[in-house]
Design brief:
The protein is an alpha/beta fold and 210 residues long. It has one domain: GTP cyclohydrolase II (Rossmann fold, 3-Layer(aba) Sandwich), CATH 3.40.50.10990. It has a 7-stranded mixed beta sheet, sandwiched between helices. β1 and β2 form a beta hairpin. α3 crosses α4. The structure holds guanosine-5'-triphosphate and zinc ion. Zinc ion binds next to loops. One of its GO terms (biological process) is riboflavin biosynthetic process. In the N-terminal section; belongs to the DHBP synthase family. Pathway: Cofactor biosynthesis; riboflavin biosynthesis; 5-amino-6-(D-ribitylamino)uracil from GTP: step 1/4. Its EC number is 3.5.4.25. InterPro entries: GTP_cyclohydro_II, RibA, RibA-like_sf.
Length: 210
């Protein structure tokens, strides 16, 4: 369960340029006492509503930084930043690279996917869990920010379930757009099939972008 010992360590303004060239400003928080000892951060945009919009984003260096088309993380992050700038709210950036298995192991999993394994089976073949994430630190960060009730921006029912189980009131959820292409269609299909992600997938590249 979230520890009450977690507190805000620092806050600082961060001007941001979004992919479309427009600018935003966020307050970036660091934390003291998070249970896994990692450097997770939260970004606050504008004046969040009484039930703030929250994106809990799992780190994906290849997608978030380099624009990898193997997954949908980059466009989901971009969409989240735009929506949060417009509506106010929080983005929690969780250091859960590769669904918790780490960057190198994720790259190894990509090799296995090239040989026909799906994204979950590849993790298991490497000796990892299919999805090793939990959302304990997310709940700790929200509590430290004084946020106990949220609207969650996600297609992943597990995030809602786990956060609720950790005492965060997920009053509503909002789906992100669907960002599919020939490169990530099999990956997105596996997410729908195996973890119940709420994505409506048409033929590659023809899905709604919002
Ligand atoms: N192990 C592994 N991790 C991946 C792979 N593709 C993306 N990831 C990681 O998966 C995480 C993102 O998870 P997703 O399943 O895309 O989305 P989600 O966070 O469950 O759900 P949303 O809230 O809807 O985005 C990030 O940590 C990525 O680094 C892959 O093929 N293998
Ligand atoms: Zn990704």
């Amino acid at each position: 369960m979230p520890s009450s010992a977690v507190s805000i360590r620092s806050e600082v303004q961060l001007p941001i340029q979004l992919a479309d060239g427009t600018e935003a400003s966020a307050l970036v928080y660091s934390f003291r006492g998070l249970s896994d000892g990692k450097e997770h951060i939260a970004l606050k945009f504008g004046e969040p509503a009484a039930v703030p919009l929250v994106r809990v984003h799992s780190e994906c260096m290849t997608g978030d930084v380099f624009g990898s088309l193997r997954c949908d993380c980059g466009p989901q992050l971009e969409e989240s930043l735009k929506t949060l700038r417009e509506e106010g709210g929080y983005l929690l950036y969780l250091r859960q690279e590769g669904r918790g298995i780490g960057l190198y192991a994720k790259l190894d999993a990509y090799r296995l996917q090239e040989q026909g394994q799906d994204t979950y089976a590849a993790n298991v073949m490497l000796g990892h869990g299919a999805d090793e994430r939990d959302y304990i630190v997310a709940a700790q960060m929200l509590r430290a920010l004084g946020v106990g009730r949220i609207e969650l921006l996600t297609n992943n029912p597990q995030k809602c379930k786990q956060l609720s189980g950790l005492g965060i009131n997920v009053a509503a959820t909002r789906r992100t757009g669907v960002y599919s292409s020939a490169h990530n269609l099999a990956y997105l299909q596996a997410k729908v099939r195996q973890t119940g992600h709420l994505l409506q997938l048409g033929p590659a590249g023809q899905d709604d972008q919002g």
